[in-house]
Amino acid sequence: MKKLVLCTLSLLVLCNITHANEVTANEKAKNHFGVCLISGVPSQQYVVVKRVKVAKGTYGSVEELYPKLGNAAQKLNANAIVDYNASQRFGFWPWRIVRPVATGTAVRWNAPNVDCQSLGGKEI
User: What residues contact residue 64 under an 8 Å CB cut-off, 6+ apart?
Assistant: First the structure.
């Protein structure tokens, strides 16, 4: 009985211990790419640069692909990714592994200042 009480108490104490790291402004700025993700085709004029596809090898959220997508757009000097689609897809072993995949078309705006929010996009 004493062992059960001791195990229960230690479990409760250990469950209440959490380690959270605060995200600083520098880390937020480092992961901000200034790239607009738009799921459809916007009304704004643009030049198509290249089709992009990024994926993660294993489980995870689609949001974990934002840094890869932002880096791909920056390497191509693109301002936005249109026809953006992100979903969970089966990997090589479909019954075991589902992984996040994001696709889209990297584009460069013709206008200098385009508001991503007004076009229905999300800036990463």
Answer: 56, 100
Give the predicted TM-score (pTM) of the model. 0.71
For residues 72 and 107, what is the distance between their CA atoms, to the nearest angstrom? 12
> pLDDT digits over 55-86, tens only?
988 888 999 999 999 999 999 999 999 999 99
Report the number of distinct structural domains present in the chain: 1
Find out whether 68 and 124 touch, Cβ atoms under 8 Å: no
Rounded CA-CA distance 46/10 in Å is: 60
Q: What is the CATH number of the domain that holds 74?
A: 3.30.110.70
Nearest CA among 86, 24, 97, 18 for reference residue 55: 86
- For the chain, strand residue ranges (E) read 36-37, 46-55, 80-90, 98-109, 122-123
Residue 19 maps to a domain: no
Q: Is 29 contained in some domain?
A: no
- Kindly report, residue by residue over 31-62, the tens digit of the pLDDT: 678 899 999 999 889 999 999 999 988 888 99
Identity at 107, one-letter amino acid code: V
